[in-house]
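Exam revision sheet. Question 4 asks you to relate a sequence to its structure. Input first:
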Amino acid sequence: MRRTWMLFMILLAAGCQIPDLTGLGGSGTPECSTGTPQNCTRTVSINGPVSSWAEGMTSQLEASESLVGYCTDIFTGTGICNFPVSASFTWSSLDTSVATVSGNGLVHSRSAGSTTITATDRANGISAQFTLDVIHVTRVSLTPASVMLLPGGVRALAFSAMDSSTGAIANFVSITWQSSNPAVAAVDSTGLVTALSLGKSVVTATTGNNVSGSTAVTVADTGKLTFVALSSGGLKYTCGISKAGPAYCWGFGANGNLGNDTLSYDGVGHPLPLLVSGTASFATISIGNRTSCALTKDGAAWCWGGNYEGEVGDGTTSDRTVPTPVAGGATYRSVSTGSEHACAVRQDATVVCWGAGYFGQLGAATPSICPGAGAEVPCSTSPIAVQGGLHFSSVSAGTGHTCGIADTGEAYCWGANDASQLGAASADTCVILGGESRPCSIAPVLVSGATRFARIRAGSRHTCALTSAGQAYCWGANDLGQLGNPGEDSVTSSPLPVAGGLTFTEIASGDDATCGLTAAGDVYCWGGWFGANGPGLVKGGRQFRSITVGFDHACGLTALGAAYCWGNADDGQLGNGAEYPPSDIPVPVSDPE
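Answer key, structure tokens:
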């Protein structure tokens, strides 16, 4: 049984007017207190459901009384005070054929129409009242009318109960929810549907006068929306490239990072996928803190989102709420977006970067000064070449550093090195905001050791990489277990094998966490919000073909292109239509509304 209602408060004094207390105070003004009620204005308030009720509803209303007036307070000085006082009330309904009210405020709606409910102080005669509208419900509509879910997926249904002849909507109504096939889809008393097994069901919402509405639920291996690529970012959001080509994003929207024009600029969570604006069709995508970049099938780069440090790469520092071409018109093999910068591998295997450069993360001297989020920072608002003339097969942009795999298999890193995240000694010193200096390298430095790598991922203060045989190594900060080696030093300056002896086909790093994907499709994660105990198997028994890690959540794609996410959900970053609770088991990303 679900009762949807809101609280209202009607504050009325004698004559049904809210007292005008402006101008009170000053020398000679009598003070209001419970001991001097003659210096106060008595007010009555009523608390209960809003005025539009369905027929047959019952609710207990409460009335209260206060003394309001000028007073002196030892904490705030002089002002207007409110003193609750005890009172006894009589209750009445102007039209008892519409609704009745008992002597203690219990209201029962009987038939369609309007009436006035009044609560009167027995001793002082002052009262409060409100108009109660009673609706004869003839139609119930559920939204959405149909929904497709993956096993384990959830979706909240919304209902509307109305009089179809007048369009009046009942806000206070009794609803009973039922699933025709609870083994396939269960529904709770709030209308939250949970997909349990493959098949179909019909979820019905029925009012107390037996008026019903329904939603068709299909539970399938994949939803209507399937993906070829996913990327999770530092500002609690994820974007994916659909099989049809358009991009979708979900989670926290700020500075245009979701690419959905105004909806990605409102500073709130969006728990369902939003279609990225524009007509561009993308093949790969990479997102950072509040900026997203993607490549078309022919290698053209487009970015959108926060641009204070020039990380959109369009030659400006204006935020972009829709995909915008990166300046220069070059085509690229791959792109990687970091916290406040991005890097891309060109067709000739050289690397260019753009955005913030105060840590040396662009791999070259910065030609410009950008306004930054709080202070001016060195930057480049368009792509500049990484110095050294090296050729790379891949590149990964982290928070303040960047790493790449040279075509020889050697790993190089550049940028911040305050936690040894470059995996080698650095000769430069970078001055950051506030004048603090940190070790860094503006030019790429060779990661120490003789190990050669096939994949590399830069996190916040650590870096992880895979050999061609799938062995995982990490280096840099280990204060949160980022290196996958419990008990190791808080900082490691050279590649260290990840504990457990597992081999992986893919590795993904977020701010302070990393996950690895085995050939069998199992996912193991360590560090940050996964914990500092070394690689741990992600629960749920689901297999994936690719993975991505964000600030406090991770996502993966199944072989059929279905997207699943796990971790925190406070800003909708799991994409399952909810912002609570978090989940340590992968939950399916829902279809857009």
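Marking note for examiners. The radius of gyration is 31 Å.
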